[in-house]
Structures are given as C-alpha cells and as structure tokens.
Amino acid sequence: MDRSSGAEPEVDISAGQKMLSAVSGSLLTSLLVTPLDVVRVRLQSQPNTPTLPRPPSSSIPSFSNLPPNLGVTACCREVFWVNNTSPVCLAAGPTLTTSVGSITTTTPTASAAECAVDETRRKTYTSTLDGLRKIARNEGLPSLWRGLSPTLVMAIPANVIYFTGYDILRSNKRSPINRYVADGYAPLMAGSIARVAAASVISPIEMFRTRMQAAPSGTSGVGVFKETLVGLKKLVHAQGYSALWRGLTLTMWRDVPFSGIYWWGYEAGRNRLRDLRYPSMGREHALSAMRKDEKHTATLIDSFVAGAISGAVASIVTTPFDVGKTRRQVTGRDDNKQVSKADKGAFQRPEERSMPRFLYHIWKEEGTAGLFRGWAARCLKVAPACAIMISSYEIGKKMAKNMNERRANGD
Description:
By secondary structure, this protein is mainly alpha-helical. It has helices spanning 15-45, 72-76, 110-122, 128-139, 148-171, 176-180, 186-214, 221-239, 248-277, 283-293, 296-317, 319-330, 341-346, 355-371, 375-408, and strands at 79-81, 89-91, 95-100, 103-108.
C-alpha cells in the first residue's frame, strides 16, 4: 500500500526525542493561548439572558462626576450573586422608605438600580474581545492566565501521548492503521485513536482547569484554586472517583472528530504545500526531496499554515460539543448533595441528559447561536494553538533528526 502521502517514517528519531518536541510545543502553546481559553469558558458557561436596559437618564442622577476610584462596591455597598451565575443583582444601596397607614415599604433608589445594571453588564461578555477587555480591567491581567498551572499539567502528558501515539500509529510498519486502513483514511483513524488515549488520561485535570477558569471575579488566584479543589473533593465524596470523568463522553464527542478532521486536513495541507514547493516532481519524489533538503524555515511555514487552517475548520465544526462539555463540567457546584434515584427520576437536569438530548435542549432554548456560543474565541484559540504546537513539534523532530545524522556520521 502506498504511504507516500502519509506520515513520514522517522525510525531515526527516538520516542524520547518526539516526547521532548511535544513538551516544548506544549509549553509555548499554553502560555500564548490560555487567555483565549479563559474567555471561551466564560462565554460558554454564562447564562443566556437578555441584555439589561439602562434606566432612563432622566429618572436617575448622573454619576459622570464621581471620582475614578469609586468602584461598584462603594456604589452598591453590597452585591450578592446567587450561585455566581444569576443575572439578578440584589443591591443594598440608598433606599426610599414610604409609609401608608401601618404598612411601611422600602425600595431601592434609582442609583442602586443603575449600579445593579452596571454590575450585571460587568459580568456579561458579548464577544471574545469584550471578554478579554472586561476580565483584564475588572479582575486584573493575571486572571487571563487563570488555570495555567493545570493547563500545563494537562497539556504536557496529553500532547506527549497524542503526538507520539499518532506518529507510532502512522509510521510503525506493524501498526494496524498501516496494515488495514486505506491511506486516505489513515489520518482520521490514527488521530482519533490517539485522542481517545490522551483524553482518557487527562480528563480529571481538564475538569479542574475548566472549573477554575469559569470561577467568577472577586476571588484571588489562590482562593479560586482552593475553592475548586474543595469542590472536587466534595464531588468525589458524594459520587465517587468516576465523577472526575464527568463530561468525558462529551469530550470524546468533541475531540475524536476534531482530531480526525484536523489530522486529515493537516496531512492534506502539507501534501498540497509540498506539491506547490516542488511543482515539477511527483508526490513521491517531492516527499523524498523534502525529507532530504527542506530547510527549517520551509518546515515551519508549511506546518504552521496547514495546522492553522485545519485547526480552524475542525474547531468550528465541533463547537457544539465543546459547549455541551463546558456546561456539563462547570454546572452543579452543589454536587456533594446526595440525590436519590426517585428524585433523579422525577427531575433530571439538562446537564444530566445524554449528549444528543443535552445539545437538543440547548438548541431548543437558545437556538443555533447557543450551540455555537464562543465559537470565535474557540477558533482564535485553537487555530494558533494547532499551528504553534504542530510547527514546534515538526521543528523539534527535524532538529533531532539532524542531530542524529551528525552523530551517525561522526561529526
């Protein structure tokens, strides 16, 4: 079977060298794209609420002349958020007390109402750029890298398993992919299998990271870490260790097709760029020339472009599954509460339904826009992440190959 258009056989590159290439790419990718991942989680996990109108300016006093350091807390005095996701802000600001006979009524003044609306808008994100701006302004710039530690802990082993596993499945002559799968479908199968293995290993870490990133403002980074850790301990105590793999099915629904589409598109893209670079040669001769003479710059450009385009297409197609996974993982912060089978049968939360039914519920309640909420943030994160990761990985392998060749030649 012709494998000229598949992965390059790299028997001269050890598994350890491939792992090191994957680690370097993981570090660089995580540092650059974590802010976009934070915004994506916030966009997908926030409730679907209509935009709150601002009270008419004629009925409220102007706040334009207040000192710039007078924040929302000073204005409202106290703001309570039910479960940290409620669109209702209960503001205890200046009140107006009226008495009619023996009945006394206390109502907030217009200034408290305006402050409540402003606080709600501060916690509502309408786009990727709006989320980046509001999080940086209201929570501080370091909040954009919230969850970076678990991201690194998750990304390094995941990418080592994922990329080295894919290479083994595609380049090893004893691989069942090489023996039984047609060359055109080999990237789909190899990428899907490698992703299943990686996702199963790091699913608990991903849940921890997702909950950290979805945490609202008002808590320090250390406080969010401790609160998330305590929440997961209660979850394990109530439902067992299997609860740490909540959302794994949805993760598989998202990541398996994503990986298949991505690797198929990446290899097809590399082949197309290779044909353009060597137009007078056939596919097999062009591949041979690339292995022998291609410079690091050409490898970087080709892998970066092919990875970015393929990653963008795959991320958009699989966004509905990403929305479902995120909502299932960040909801139910009272998971330590025991629920009887009778109660569970009487009332089942949407997040507890099967994946198709849950996504159908989102579509029914919020429409197609709900299923693709955060697609821009996801695409802006995934496309450069794929480009950076795969180009770093390819460059790392090429450097390792050159080093091995020099050692073999006694240089």
